[in-house]
Amino acid sequence: MTSTGLQSQPTSAIIAEHLRERVVDGTYAPGAQMNEARLAGDFQVSRGPVREALQRLVQEGLLESRRNRGVFVRELTDDDAAEIFAAREVLECAAAAVIAAKPAVERARIATALSSIAAELNTAIRANQEARTLRLDHEFHSRFVDSAGNSRLSRAYATIATESLICSSHGVGAHPPLGDFSTHHEALVQLTERGDIEGIHAAVHRHLTRA
Fold it and tell me: Which residues form the HTH gntR-type domain (predicted)?
């Protein structure tokens, strides 16, 4: 890995993004130790930005710091998964309340953007691409919450959504059959355009309860 492009943004933020992706895709498995010196060598940077990146991911809950031992990839349990999906439901329903109150023309714009992601997701489902389906599900729900236009709500959801993706990708807890994803997302697009907050709540609850 090279440092190409790292200079254009805060180095620690770019490193954190790279590491976050590798935790999600399993390159760094649950329980793996994050060696600061080795990572600095991989990224061709000093240890300072790596240390900052690791601390950022510790704060997000993806890594954990063990006293006198170092930093490790957090190992999520089925109980963690249950808490994560419950928190997702609360945050997505909060976003739904804001979105439902928007003018019809704005809801239609949001629904169009969501429909585009849902179409990609359906293509991934037909190709039986589980990893891509899960990532597009993550993108769909993150876009839904971001559409509320509340930066603090989006920030809170970002960490929860990443943890949820890790659970699904690593087989912690479970996720609904891929076929259910298509029905769920198409329904959410329609409910969002109508501003049907009760319908959105019910759809989100069914989807996350299945998980």
Answer: 9-76
